[in-house]
Amino acid sequence: MEQPQPKSQRIEPIDIEKEMRKSYLDYSMSVIVGRALPDVRDGLKPVHRRVLFAMKEGGNEWNRSYKKSARTVGDVMGKYHPHGDSAIYDTLVRLAQPFSMRHVLVDGQGNFGSIDGDSAAAMRYTEARLSRLASEMMEDIDQDTVDFGPNYDDSLQEPLTLPTRFPNLLVNGTQGIAVGMATSIPPHNLRECCNALVALIDNPALDLGGIMEFIKAPDFPGGGMMLGTEGVLDAYRTGRGRCVVRAKSHTETIRVKNKGEVEQIVFTELPYQVNKATLTSKIADLVNEKRLEGISDLRDESDREGIRLVVELKRNEPSDIVLNQLYQQTQLQNSFPITMLCIVNGQPRVCTLREILKEFLGFRREVVTRRTMFQLRKAEDRHHILLGLKIALDWLDAVIALIRAAKSPDEAKSGLMLGLFAGARAEEFKLSDRQAQAILDMRLQRLTGLERDKILEELAEVEATIAYLKSILEDDAKLMAVIREELVNIGEQFGNDRRTEIMGFTGEIRMEDVIPDDPMVVTLSKTGYIKRTDLAAYRRQKRGGKGKLGMKTKDEDFVEQLFLTKAHDTLLVFTDRGYAYAIKVYDIPESGAANRGKHIKNLISLKDDEKVVTLMALREFPEHHHLVFATSDGTVKRTSLSAYANIRSNGLIALNIEDGNALVAVRQSTGEQQIILVSAQGKAIRFSAEDVRAMGRVTTGVRGMKMGSGDCIVDMEVMDPLPDLPEGVEADESTAEHGMLLTVTEKGYGKRSLLQDYRLQHRGGGGVINIRAGVRNGLVVGSVLVKPGEGCLLISQEGMVIRFNIDEVRQTGRAAQGVRLLNLASAEDRVVGIAKIDASAQALEEEELTDELMADAETAHPVDENGVQQKLGLE
After folding, report:
1. Delimiting residues of CATH 1.10.268.10 domain(s) in the chain
2. Which of 243, 242, 240, 237 is nearest to 354 (CA)?
3. Which CATH number is correct for 248-331, 3.30.1490.100, 3.20.20.140, 3.40.50.720, 3.30.1360.40?
4. Listed residue (258, 233, 251, 252) closest to 243, CA to CA
5. Pick the CATH number of 365-494 from 1.10.268.10, 3.40.1360.10, 3.40.50.620, 3.30.420.40
6. Torsion sign over Cα 742, 743, 749, 752
7. Residue 4 main-chain phi, psi, to 5 deg
8. DSSP states of 594-654 as a string?
9. Which residue from 741, 93, 199 is spatially nearest to 480, judged by alpha carbons?
10. Which residue, 99, 96, 76, is CA-closest to 86?
11. What is the pLDDT of residue 844?
12. Which residues are within 8 A (CB) of 96 and not within 5 positions of it... i.e. 6 or more apart?
């Protein structure tokens, strides 16, 4: 018969997947419950609880002398927390930091770190003791108020929670990362929390709205200003949300040598957990990178009195705009995530504010009940002893005689227990062992009349105490009244005023809140320098004045695009490589009329080989509107405008561009309009936008015009459909109000033709003749839709510019060669740009602006007899 193998030699098959799942789950729960998450009852993680308990055990109380931190760390590590000493010391340090804790639980002496991120001194140098409030957390710990459990080696007992008298989980908050979950609870005001608990005791049906009459929002140690309570309300209602806190600031005016009076922004309170040194360095980097404008100096003038971070502004810089840029780009405005995850009955749970308060009240009910029962047992024990002493005093002579006659203490004790007094009946005076021993231990001085009265008084007091304690246990209202009174006392003794100010604010901070939506002139030079100028800057003079230089440019540069928009508009930037970028108009540096501005690469992430082809200012992005794209190879694409509403900081693909192709124009369309494509060799085609089906953003498009050999698209326009002419009626000047097409060639020639001359075709055709391109005219530069009364600007490669009225250009047929518009100064020069001066709703403003620009240019550089501006902006 085969002998069974010893148990130690058996091999048991185990499913590795099940074993890994079980082991990882055990590990996860160990981390969650035993390390990373706080208990809903005392708001402490195990390491925090062990530090405080070890300090109390070591007599390191608030009313005693300080002890070395190293001693506390050693006690904690050796008795309760067998982990690294640095982790324990870091815990002790945080409990002593007033910028980390709303109410410190450790009273530290020495260097315990700073808000600049400086580390605390070594534990051998610092000293610590419990704070007075921490003592309140352990006030009744020796009265059987909480359960104890074995420490890591079963040699000692440690509390599983502390019998705290205030909701520490809310008051000091906590943060922790467990396995698969994290907690982030902000600090709150102690007085507000105690008042809310009192109100909940008075009215157990109190809802969240009623609770928030007392706990309005988190209250951070460093103060600051909270922007609204919408996210806080979500957190209180669901357990998850966020709050936005910004630094508190004010402005001061100082006098600086060689500068006169300048403003400076002074920050006196920072958002919670923001490192001041890192913040200062970040602001300096943003200034050096030219991402923050208007700052001339940055100083940290903080001292032991408080924080004082000074941002000095350049002269005449608006402080409100700079302040909001700082809030947007730095941690001077910070979002604090709220996840109220804690351990409830041994399990992790996300709690609402009301649940946390109810759990704490339930815990306090249990603590006070256990404390009352403990005190009742003590009182009843004392009452039992006092009754025995009273009997002895009533039969004093007989008791003394019995004791004197006894041969030994045991005999005397037995006699007392049997009631063998002279003249006494044993059945009336059965004393217990403890009573008899108490009589034997009684000192002779207790036999005096005064001491006898004290025993009787104490007996009466103990009987009253027993009656009171029993009434608490029997009446729930009295029990809750005790809890209520303790909360009121804690709030009055340790509470203080709210530090974090609550501002009436909802939504995200926007620059639109402080920047007026004024009309702005945006200019872009050929080499990419962009700026915005307040339209009012051009209205200070009338035409015929001395004039102001329109824009400083280099000799090889000139203004290529100029248009009127508003500060709150979004500027879409499209490049020849098919990328789209977005920037707010107010984010473009504002410069005077004579300044060149900033290169557009400093504002958007243009690639080295990209060239801006279209700027488009928009206020809204309606889904039923579209963008129409045209590329040099004749491809067109139509995409919903809403696809470009949220463009990332590094841009996005507007359409796919193949090698050798380039984007030449982008226009806005309602989708029911018509498209005109113009080629370099003088062809044009007009077709309905409905022929181009709407496509997604990352697509190539469809053929719009069939290109001849060596030809390419140079421009595109979108127009409203033309009305049908009565039968037999041909287009003439009377139909010009519907629009005309002005076409300009590189050698300065151009013409305008009626739109009706371009018959409506289907997309993909070869088009019709638009202008005779050849040796005289050169290639077509571009075309614009114009109406009577509008103006136009032509710009040459060498910076020559001319402004003329459309009505001055003779109307001709499609196949005409056109007339001279710009007399170029040299054979090498050529026209490179054409811009229309709109005569619509903003005609008055824009004509004033254009007149000013032209007057400025004419003042700076002479004009020949043909009205041609020789150079624009060379200075």
Report:
1. 365-494
2. 237
3. 3.30.1360.40
4. 233
5. 1.10.268.10
6. negative
7. -65, 145
8. T---EEGGGTS---TT--EEEEEEES---TT-EEEEEETTSEEEEEEGGGGSS--TT-EES
9. 199
10. 76
11. 37
12. 104, 105, 106, 107, 108, 112, 128
In sequence order, what are the residues at sequence separation of 6 or more whose Cβ sits closer than 8 angstroms to the Cβ of residue 837?
A: 790, 791, 792, 793, 803, 846, 847, 850
- Confidence label for 815 from pLDDT (cuts 50, 70 and 90): confident
Residues annotated catalytic, as ranges: 125
- Rounded CA-CA distance 535/849 in Å is 7
| 656, amino acid identity | N
Instruction: Say if residues 473 and 479 touch (Cβ distance below 8 Å).
Output: yes
What pLDDT, in 10s, does the model give residues 261-318? 888 999 999 999 999 999 999 999 999 888 888 898 999 999 888 999 999 998 877 7
CATH 3.30.1360.40 residue ranges of the chain are 248-331
Do 374 and 273 contact (CB within 8 A), yes or no? Answer: no
Give DSSP secondary structure letters for 551-569.
----TT--EEEEEEEETTS
Q: Find out whether 792 and 786 touch, Cβ atoms under 8 Å.
A: yes
Q: What are phi and psi of 182, to 5 degrees?
A: -145, 155
CA distance 75 to 60: 12
The encoded tokens of residue 457 equal 């008084």
Whole-model pTM over 0.85: no
Cα–Cα dist 851/66, whole Å: 80
- What per-residue confidence (pLDDT) applies to 78? 93
State the average pLDDT over residues 15-22. 80
Query: What's the mean pLDDT in 749-761?
Result: 88
Domain with CATH 2.120.10.90 in the chain: 516-619+845-875
CATH of the domain spanning 30-164, picked from 3.90.199.10, 1.20.1090.10, 3.40.720.10, 3.40.50.300: 3.90.199.10
pLDDT at 427 over 70: no
Q: Give the integer Cα–Cα distance in Å for 490 and 480.
A: 15
Q: Which fold has domain 516-619+845-875?
A: Neuraminidase (2.120.10)
